[in-house]
Amino acid sequence: MYTLGINAVFHDSSACIIKDGQLLAAVEDERFTHIKHGKRPVPFSTYELPFHAIDYCLQVAGIHLKDVDHIAYSFNPYLVIPKSQVNATSIKIPFYPSLENQVVDNSWDNLFLSSILNAPAQLVDGYPHHLQNRFKGTTENDWQWHFVEHHIAHAASAFLPSPYPDAAVITLDGRGEIATTTYNVGHGTTLDRLGQVNLPHSFGLLYEKLTTYLGFLHSSDEYKVMSLASYGKPAFVNDFREIIQLGNHGQYSIKQEPFEEWFGPARNRDDAFTSHHFNLAHSLQVVLEESVVEICNWLQETTREDNLCLAGGVALNCVLNGRIRDRSRFKNIWVQPAAGDSGTALGAALWVDTKERKHAARSFTMNHAYWGPEFTDQEIEKFLNWAKVPYHKMADIAVETAQLLSENKIVGWFQGRMEFGPRALGSRSILASPIDMEMQSRLNEVKDREDFRPVAPVVLEEDAAEWFNHAQSSPFMLFIYDVSEHKAGQIPAVTHVDGTARIQTINETQHPAYYKLLKAFKEKTGVPVLVNTSFNTLGQPIVCSPRDAIACFWSSPFDALVMGSFLIEKYHDRKNHSDHSYLQKTQAID
Q1: Pure H helices in 387-479
Q2: Fewest CB atoms less than 10 Å from the CB: which of 151, 318, 342, 519?
Q3: pLDDT single digits (tens) 260-299
Q4: Based on C-alpha coordinates, what's the Rg of the chain?
Q5: How many CB atoms neighbour CB 47 within 10 A?
Q6: CA 157, 160, 162, 167 torsion: positive or negative?
Q7: Cis before residue 200, ω within 30 degrees of 0?
Q8: pLDDT tens-digit map of 62-99
């Protein structure tokens, strides 16, 4: 049985394909369209479906769209449509809702909901012309369509692929249909809702609100606010404790007054950062942490579960996750690596698969995030020859790349299947040595990022606890740890201003090529740690294809690119390129 999962309502449009409980592929649409987050979360874009991501998933499964049995869409419009209008055949959409006599908070809801209701028809005949091979000839009768509640999709993405047979489950998001936060308990293949917080009260929307106030792009740059928080002081914690009102049984409310009334004029995008901005970010982060930890403790007391699963965009806050790990009563925590809306495609598909196969036991655990496209050496070399790119085929990828890194060179690393979710985890990464203190600022310059942004380390799993205090397996880069006081001087580039690091651990089973590189670098330097940041530049999604990688490499100031077995370097003083392989080749791409 094939189940196609689709996320398309707000942002981070994505798709996945499940076969009899096993994940075959999962990917964000942005990686193909080169539009960051796929689209902006506005009503005018709701109709857009992630056709490129869907096409890739069908390709991996080796099927046509008409061969899919079930389609799970991670939003249920019937939770929002008034009962009196469920069977309506027409809707009212104002031409100019901004006019005084038409100003209503939900002026565009009908357009938004109409786009969702018509998604099955859009899937059948709205596909791009160049993707028609896997879509053409399909009808809405070829599969069963399921609208899955947004927060059920988040909760299922957190629990069903987790390593726990039983767990409490929290979803923390900006918004769904009605809910913004949910509390659940999972047993086997079931999820029971214990409670929820509804709009307009939302930790996610509050964090978005501060993101906008600080001059960043909401629904995109929240992670920058988290980074900014490390530089501040808790000067406004009392204000945020007044804004966030905690109640009983996991309930909370958020005061809705504009931040300008609380904190003065907002920062414009190009304004300099001041202590005021740092302190605001820090204060909200502190109050968010203490609020969520208190809620976690209530949920643990209520469920008596030792395990906690998390999803929703707020669960990408690795500092918050670290506080939950250290300060809550839960013993074990698993966070969905695609915790944002992209992961709802997976959650919706797993939920429908579980329901349709009824008594089938869970058989899938998400031990890694490598579910996207991959390219063979033959495909990579064919492209390099066609593009007339000078390259060298390496005899030992790990050893030769480790040598470049030990020489303090910045290396693009393109290996294996692409990651699902927002983190680069060693398949589409930019790597560097953590030994030089200046590497953090060099990488921020390479990627045209703000100076305050930290860079994160990847560490051999077996060495993690020696370099980062009490570190455990952390393959998805979703938790912070304190850098060991005795090791911090050896890895200054990845030690944040507050002495922490957002680590990724790696073992040989998860990504053999990546693991071997870390081992080779350790043999050369004695340090089992590398800097790992995403293979992209400002405003661009992470690269997907060899073409993307070459375009990013040649338009950015880093030194080398390792794609499969092939090394591409920038030689500014080389006059004779005759030893480069492309001059010996005549094969052209089809």
Answers
A1: 397-406, 439-446, 464-467
A2: 519
A3: 999 999 999 999 999 999 999 999 999 999 999 999 999 9
A4: 24
A5: 16
A6: positive
A7: yes
A8: 999 999 999 999 999 999 988 878 888 777 777 776 66
